[in-house]
């Protein structure tokens, strides 16, 4: 199946302020699949949305018979279909239970195969890659802050926040509408690449410079995971904090 097996390390912490953890993640190292979601909604609905989205997307991927001849386009269509499946599952769960109405979630998924990483995302959870000591964010936040910065209204995210624009205002999410518009991408793998998927409990509180510094260290993935989590807690831990560190074997 030309799947790249992964060495993975995960962390998920409720933080220092929230009463429940509305993040949810799953890793399938033998299948080269990573998924993470950050839910939103009252009465624990965000927790439900995140779990439903991740499991539905994982089901779509796992139920697909990967053919050795499957090409890049087919792989991209698969991950897009996984996000659509997640969206349908969250919408349906909200329709079936009035207490869950209006729930939604971010979603990031990555599949390692064909010498590439294929990825899709909706919302402001992120996928990073460390290559040759340089950290690069491979996803673009679907948020009002990011849109305003991209449009030149504000110089950077800090300026937008200073003007009172909340970081938590998403422009796209999974489950709030009957249709979903994920961003899809694919990148070639290099042997020493290190990947990070995280919720904004980490990347919204800890700078890319600090994240890159930890990921560039000679420490194990376990130590990196502990250090990244501690940085987010030291920054206030105002949100749930979840992360996946992965390296292709």
Protein described:
By secondary structure, the protein is α+β, with helices and mostly antiparallel strands. The chain has seven helices and eleven strands. The chain has helices spanning 45-62, 72-96, 144-150, 157-162, 200-203, 208-215, 221-234, and strands spanning 6-13, 23-28, 33-40, 104-105, 107-113, 116-122, 126-131, 134-137, 183-188, 194-198, 241-248. Strands 2, 3, 4, 5, 6 and 9 form a six-stranded antiparallel beta sheet that branches. Strands 1-11-10-7-8 form a five-stranded antiparallel beta sheet. Strand 7 and strand 8 (134-137) form a beta hairpin. The model has no long low-confidence stretch (mean pLDDT 94).
Question: What order do the helices and strands come in, and which of them pair?
Answer:
Elements: E1 6-13, E2 23-28, E3 33-40, H1 45-62, H2 72-96, E4 104-105, E5 107-113, E6 116-122, E7 126-131, E8 134-137, H3 144-150, H4 157-162, E9 183-188, E10 194-198, H5 200-203, H6 208-215, H7 221-234, E11 241-248
Antiparallel strand pairs: 1-11, 2-3, 3-4, 3-5, 5-6, 6-9, 7-8, 7-10, 10-11
């Amino acid at each position: 199946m030309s799947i790249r097996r992964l060495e993975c390390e995960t962390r998920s912490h409720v933080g220092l302020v929230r009463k429940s953890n509305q993040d949810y993640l799953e890793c399938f190292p033998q299948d080269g699949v990573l998924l993470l979601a950050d839910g939103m909604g009252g009465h624990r609905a965000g927790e439900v949305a995140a779990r439903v989205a991740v499991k539905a997307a994982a089901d779509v991927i796992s139920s697909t018979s990967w053919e050795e001849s499957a090409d890049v386009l087919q792989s991209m269509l698969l991950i897009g279909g996984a996000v659509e499946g997640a969206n349908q599952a969250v919408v349906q769960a909200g329709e079936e239970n009035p207490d869950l109405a209006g729930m939604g979630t971010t979603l990031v998924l990555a599949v390692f195969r064909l010498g590439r990483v294929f990825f899709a995302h909706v919302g402001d959870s992120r996928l990073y890659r460390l290559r040759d000591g340089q950290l690069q964010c491979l996803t673009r936040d679907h948020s009002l802050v990011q849109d305003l910065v991209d449009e030149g209204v504000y110089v950077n995210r800090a300026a937008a926040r200073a003007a009172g624009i909340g970081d938590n205002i998403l422009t796209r999410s999974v489950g709030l509408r009957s249709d979903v518009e994920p961003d899809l991408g694919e990148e070639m793998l290099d042997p020493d690449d290190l990947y990070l998927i995280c919720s904004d409990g980490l990347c919204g509180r800890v700078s890319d410079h600090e994240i890159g510094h930890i990921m560039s260290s000679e420490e194990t993935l376990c130590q990196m995971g502990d250090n990244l989590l501690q940085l987010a807690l030291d920054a206030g831990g105002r949100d749930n904090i979840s992360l996946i560190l992965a390296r292709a074997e």
